[in-house]
Amino acid sequence: ICVHYHSKGCGQLVVFYTWKRLENCTRGWRLFNLVTGFFPCSNTLLPYCTRHLEAITQGANHPFQELASVCLKNLRRSLSFGGRRHIPSHSEMEAILAGRSSRRLPIKLPGGNEFACKIRSFSVAFEVVQDFCTEMGVLNPAEVKEFSIHATKKGGKISLVTLMHT
């Protein structure tokens, strides 16, 4: 039943963001960004959603090409890793719906140095480690697996993020 309602909801979002009013389209795309980041698409809707998003991302003049690309990445990420497990805070939800979906998060390195990493609303730790390793020039997948991230929360907020090498 849940899959049926999720597929129906995704279909309604596609209709919503294809309305001709720019404000409705933008709001619909941002909402679709949230849905694709939280829920993997049903097998029934997946090929249609993927084809639609790919067509828009490859179209040269589509006004929502960038948002479609983000939705496609979220869709693929949620299929690979599962959807986001924790509901965003009220302020994060407002930021996403306002079009601000990333922030810089300092990662403490061994030796006390810090590296500012760009975190998106639906980033997964694996991607953050990959990005960091690419920045360091570590491209071998076996070597990338030697790195991990340790995050410490205080009062509901991340207070320290440390890169670990095993």
Can you tell me about this structure?
- The protein is an alpha+beta fold and 166 residues long.
- It has two domains: 2-97, Serine Threonine Protein Phosphatase 5, Tetratricopeptide repeat; 102-165, Phosphatidylinositol 3-kinase Catalytic Subunit, Chain A, domain 1 (Ubiquitin-like (UB roll), Roll).
- It contains seven helices and four strands.
- It has helices at residues 2-17, 22-38, 46-58, 65-81, 90-97, 125-136, 141-144, and strands at 102-108, 114-120, 147-154, 157-165.
- A two-stranded antiparallel ribbon has the order 1-2. A two-stranded antiparallel ribbon has the order 3-4.
- Strand 1 (102-108) and strand 2 (114-120) form a beta hairpin.
- Helix 2 runs parallel beside helix 4 (65-81).
- The longest helix has 17 residues, at 22-38.
- The model is unreliable at 1-5 (pLDDT under 50).
What is the domain total for the residues?
2
Q: What are the segments in which pLDDT stays under 50 over at least 5 consecutive residues? A: 1-5
What is the CATH fold-level name of the largest domain? Serine Threonine Protein Phosphatase 5, Tetratricopeptide repeat
Corresponding CATH superfamily of the largest domain = MyTH4 domain
Taking the sheet with the most strands, its summary is: 2 strands, antiparallel
Level-1 CATH class name of the largest domain: Mainly Alpha
Considering DSSP H and I runs of 4 or more, what fraction of the residues is helical? 40-55%
Kindly report the spatial arrangement of strands forming the biggest sheet. Answer: 1-2
In percent terms, what proportion of residues is strand? 15-25%
Rg from C-alpha positions?
A: 18 Å
N→C terminal distance: 44 Å
